[in-house]
Amino acid sequence: MDTLEVRNERDGLIVFLRKVSPGEGFEFHYIHSVDRTPVTGYFLITSGKKIKPVETRFESYGAGLPSTEKDVTFEGGKIKVKTDALEMEYFSFFVSPITHQAMIFKGERLEFSSFKEGEVMIIRVKSYPLFREVIFRHGSR
Q1: Nearest one of 112, 104, 128, 125 to 42, comparing CA atoms
Q2: Number of domains in the chain
Q3: pLDDT digits (tens, 9 = 90+) for 89-119
């Protein structure tokens, strides 16, 4: 069974584990550390069990954000940039109280502010044997 897994790199603690299928996606929200404006990244799960960045939305261009030279639209005061980025084995980031990172999957929000500053979190698609399905039915965290 394929799952969307969020793990703390330092101690390997799994903090989020949900069944996932190709075509489903998640959002990653944070506050840009320089501009102090909200940024949302949209990611899809591929049939190859990888993560594909598909779009980023933000209010103003800042360091580290996608180039606004191609495939850009404006909607509701936000810049929307479609991406043709390659699929990734995993998505990782450093926890920061300044940027207030959060992930949303199927309406469920996971805030990372309770983790120690500087911790590395890893989001990936991982396969687990079917006998572990009982854990998922009970909403394991």
Answers
A1: 104
A2: 1
A3: 999 999 998 899 999 999 999 999 889 999 9
Q: Yes or no: say if 62 and 32 are a contact pair by the CB < 8 Å rule.
A: yes
Sheet architecture: strand order including 14-19:
14-19, 2-8, 120-127, 90-94
Q: Find the domain containing 124 and state its range.
A: 2-135
- Cα distance between residue 84 and residue 71, in whole Å: 10
Q: Encode pLDDT of 21-77 as tens digits.
A: 999 999 999 997 777 888 889 999 999 999 999 988 877 666 556 665 667 777 787
pTM of the model: 0.82
